[in-house]
Predict the structure of DRAM1 protein.
Amino acid sequence: MLCCMPGVAFVPALLVSWSSAAFIISYVIAVLAGHVEPLVPYISDTGTKPPESGVFGFMINISALLASITMYIRYLLIEKQNESSHFVRSSCNMFTLCVGLMGCTGMGIVATFQELAVPSVHDIGALVAFGSGVVYITLQSMISYKSCPRWNTYFVCHIRMAISVISLIAFIPMIVFASKISMTKIDWTPGEKVKSY
């Protein structure tokens, strides 16, 4: 099986490296072009205007593809481990993969539809990406606990669950605050009135 082939461990490392580079490169271009303030802009703000929007969209779409491959490898790994241990139902593993792939689709939507060009589609994509991501890592944490002690240590399971809890805690205020913001532009001039919608 693919998951037993030597060298597939580079895929998650490539995913993290590529995704980090996507955010950093688009941020640097946006700051140098004067499109965003350097102090903690929204990630989507750094991919709204050309030329950084093209770089952001391209790199995040590649990240979504790498994430899909990583999730599929994890799915295959669990299926292979499950052949001898039977620690999780195959349907549960498939459901977890589908949730993860839904999150990757959300990433692709975020990358393709810029924040100010099509805000409702962009926001739905972000909601799907982050929401599915939280559910995916929580399900993966639960699968890890079921596979203990043969395939995981409890320490690794606790780390995964801690990441799941932190993600959930971060997701809740994101939803609350995003629902209160109606953003129609990034650049504001002093004395400009805010339109409320």
User: Anything to note?
Assistant: The chain has a mean pLDDT of 89. The first helix runs from residue 10 to 32.
